[in-house]
Amino acid sequence: MASKGNLFAYNLRAKKKIQPELAHTLPLPVHDKTASEALQIEAIFTGFTIDVSHPDSIRVLCLNGGFGQGMLSRAFPACVTNPRELDRKRKRKTTSAPIEPNASQENVNEPLCLFLEEAFFLMHTLGILHVKDLFDKQIDTREAFERFRKIKKNFLACYCAYLYLKSKNWIIKSGIKFGGDFVIYVKGPQFYHASYIVLVQEMFEGKQIDSHTVDGLDFEGFNRIAETTAKDVLFLEVHYPSTLDLSDNAACLERLKEVRVAELFTKHHNYLAARNQ
Fold first, then answer.
1. CATH 3.40.1350.10 residue window(s) in the chain
2. Does 10 participate in catalysis according to the annotation?
3. For residue range 22-62, what is the model confidence (pLDDT) as tens digits?
4. Which one of 166, 231, 239, 240 is the catalytic residue?
5. Is residue 231 annotated as a catalytic residue, yes or no?
6. CA gap 52, 55 in Å, rounded
7. What is the CATH number of domain 153-271?
8. Which runs of E-coded beta strand occur in the chain?
9. Active-site residue, from 159, 185, 196, 240
10. Does the pLDDT of residue 105 top 50, yes or no?
11. N or C, which terminus of the chain has less Cβ within 10 Å?
12. Does 108 score more than 80 pLDDT?
């Protein structure tokens, strides 16, 4: 995966409190040499997300690369942080007697939801994720690639951008909350707030293709969101080879290394504020 530019992080905003069970992490899931079998993680493709339900697999993915998000949580599933917090109810003033959870509610396991790009990264690049559909049919890498491209129009470009960011050791999360494709973290969301909102643009022979073009009004909106959430906007231009047939899934998978990714920053620099620091 060729690249242009120099992605960096500065002015990091560290979290005030880090839970002890989330403090020790690794960049990627690794195989335990003491184990007799290689690392294998089972997941189910629901049609939109890929869900992992086994608690041990969830811990491996969350604490080694920051993969996925809890279905009922803002970040990490309850089995990773604290099982007692599975039932996350907001504290409200009420005159009625509190309802005590029954045994069946306490035993509910909160699954880990993987978005398409990170699930395919675990399948295609690391080879540790085995996915089945709702009918218990195994989905191989080629079939998963075809399905994901049907679900998400710019999946190929987003996956190339995902690979590029992973090569820079960023922790990548879905950016739908902020209107982008991704948000990226240094080390992990339990340590720092997100540094960038990432927008992916597909480029073919120097022109943007088959995706929404960010006009002046959109650009102003993204900058306002980034400013109010103390982040910056990062555009990643994914340039395909001129000889690549984008309709050929097999060719797209084989020629991923020929794709080039360029960075475009939109940082506002306050000269007076920087000089007074």
1. 153-271
2. no
3. 888 888 987 665 665 788 999 999 998 999 999 999 999 99
4. 231
5. yes
6. 8
7. 3.40.1350.10
8. 2-4, 41-45, 50-52, 69-70, 112-114, 129-132, 138-139, 170-174, 182-186, 196-204, 207-208, 232-240, 260-265
9. 185
10. no
11. C
12. no
Annotation says 192 is catalytic: no
Q: Where in the chain do CATH 3.40.1170.20 domains reside?
A: 38-87+108-152
Nearest residue to 237 (alpha-carbon basis) of 253, 214, 260: 260
Question: What would the pLDDT profile of 161-215 be if each residue is shown by its tens digit?
Answer: 999 999 999 999 999 999 899 999 999 999 999 999 999 999 998 888 865 667 7
Contact 76, 190 (CB under 8 A): yes
User: What is the spatial distance between Cα 229 and Cα 178, in angstroms, rounded to a whole number?
Assistant: 9
Q: Between residues 129 and 37, which one has the greater pLDDT?
A: 129
Pair of tokens at residue 20: 């002890």
CATH 3.40.50.300 holds for 38-87+108-152: no
State how far the Cα of 162 lies from the Cα of 200, in Å rounded to an integer.
10
Selecting among 124, 130, 168, 193, the annotated active-site residue is 193
Among 8, 15, 126, 132, CA closest to 67? 126
Encoding tokens for residue 195? 């540094």
